[in-house]
Amino acid sequence: MAFERVTVDPERMGGLPCIRDLRVTVSMVLGQLAAGRTIEQLLADYPYLEHADVLAALEYAAAIAQEREVPLARPA
Fold this sequence. Notes:
The chain has helices at about 25-35, 40-45, 50-65; strands at about 5, 20. With about 80 residues, the protein is mostly helical. It has a two-stranded antiparallel sheet with strand order 1-2. Helix 1 (about 25-35) packs across helix 3. The longest helix is centred in the C-terminal third of the chain and has 16 residues, at about 50-65.
């Protein structure tokens, strides 16, 4: 999976996926939207974010939700 606006750095924010290497996690963006904030409100609260950043967080979440972990072997 390649996402230009979502970065993961083990040295930043505990390795959580972030927006454009900022200290803004994808989960924070998603949590704000889930709590009922609009994209416009989110952008007003975080002026260094761009509309495309919020869409990238949603796209990233959709891709992660589609991932499946396939076990190599069943535990005995």
